[in-house]
Amino acid sequence: MPTMTGKRWKTRLLPAFLIAGFVVWMTMVCVSIANEPPEGSASAQSLRGDVAQAVQDQDADRLQNLFHPDTVADGYATALFERLKEAESSDVSPTLRIEDQQQVLVLKGTSADGAVCVPWQVTEEDSRWYLDGTPPLNAHFCNGR
């Protein structure tokens, strides 16, 4: 008889352990979602600062989070950092410019071949500021004008 009672005890605890494991897993998922930084930035100036910090730290996840989600594919920031590394870029920093009533963030630096320049339009949606992954069509942003 002790063997039968032991099996009943294990059979009764198995669902409780499964439910407890599920609750712990769901709690971890909720906490990770709650602690995820919001997309974009609070202002255009803080967007420039966030881009500068992401570039300095080589934090592709943070930089990816600063782009409007509809304008770049997953992995865009990782690919950008790979290209900057291939170009042996240095002194890369963003500047925020306003021209023709359009805000543009320009990422400039030096490379083994001369210069690095990537301009992005800055957009606002629901009080959050984002980079638009589609670059402006005016090349003058990289010409120093």
What does this structure look like?
It contains 4 helices and 4 strands; from the N terminus they run ααααββββ. It is α+β, with helices and mostly antiparallel strands and 145 residues long. A hairpin with a 2-residue loop joins β3 and β4. The chain is elongated and about 80 Å long.
What is shown here, in short?
The chain has 145 residues and is an alpha+beta fold.
List the defining traits of the structure above.
145 residues; alpha+beta; four-stranded antiparallel β-sheet; 44% helix; elongated
Rg over alpha carbons: 24 Å
Average pLDDT, rounded to a whole number, is 85
| Estimated structural class | alpha+beta
Oligomer: single chain
Extract low-pLDDT stretches. none
Strand order of the biggest β-sheet: 1-2-3-4
Q: Helix fraction?
A: 40-55%
Strand content: 25-35%
Q: What's the total count of β strands? A: 4
SSE sequence, one letter per element = HHHHEEEE
Shape: elongated
Span between N and C termini?
A: 90 Å
- Largest beta sheet, briefly? 4 strands, antiparallel
By DSSP (H or I, 4+ residues per run), the number of helices equals: 4
